[in-house]
Amino acid sequence: MMVEDPPAGTLGDSQGRVLDYLRVSVTGRCNLRCVYCMPGSGAGGKSRGDPLSFGELLRCCRAAASLGIQTIKVTGGEPLARRGTAAFVAALRALPGISAVTMTSNGTLVEKELDRLVEAGLDGLNISLDTLDGETFRRITRRNGLGKVLRAVDGALAAGLKVKINTVLLRGINDHELGAIAALARRRPVPVRYIELMPLGCAAAFEPLSGQETAAALERQYGKLVPLTGKLGNGPARYYRLEGFTGPIGFINPISRGFCESCNRLRLSSQGILRSCLCGGATLDLRSLLRSGEGALRQGFIDLAARKPPCHHLSGVYGKGRVEDGAGEMFRVGG
Questions:
Q1: What secondary structure does DSSP assign to 283-323, as a single string?
Q2: Looking at residue 280, what is its pLDDT?
Q3: What's the number of domains the chain is made of?
Q4: pTM above threshold 0.85
């Protein structure tokens, strides 16, 4: 089948996919130690050097925006663990061509930064929430802080931000709570999204639930999941409605169903590594191009996009153990 070239003025790859979404990690550090993401000892000393300054990250994003990147997701680690992230959001929001800047966060630091984030023009906030039980929260994150996360959800909503809840289910640990977590969308206009665990790094030690298992459990408790039509957000989630719920229920199933054919994103690490795919694929060190000006950065994005693989190689890997794919720990590549 012939692959069409992307429209003029856009960033495209060899599969004809238009790349208009950039995930930018501002730090590999996090104040939590989630068991499926980071070792208990923390990030350790394996990073690729000091993080880029916010000014350097902004220059990379400006080059990307000039090529058709429209949406930027600020990630980490925990992005709010780096001082100045709200000001960085404001600078991103002012870039020509950028239509939305959103953030993914564990929620524990949102309260104290919320006013600054709203003032900066943040368009949306994805909050990770895997449990509603304090003891299970400590078991998963190795820290306290559930109350802060729950207050972050309601505080962000009250401040007018679009909020999404992201939940990763671990069999035998928090899977019995999936119905209770879904109920957060009963009276709140909040999408609750269930994300299949990807067996990378620390996560390979845990047994996941597939999206199909999760959906079946929800239907047993709440009734039929009715598919929603139309586009909701910029990501791969498939959304459904439950009767009596205000917010939708979403599923992000990178393993059991996959969505590589419609992948529209690149990833930039805090050290300046541009990644074509979360699970391996080509990378490019943009740090080395910063001295050469925006033209070199633009060409770097173009060259890396052309090397984006057709798909990841994790389909069907559940139960096969750790995946050694070059991506490494999730917190190092921004999730």
A1: EEEGGGGGGG-HHHHHHHHHHHHHT--SS-S-TT-TTS--B
A2: 73
A3: 1
A4: yes
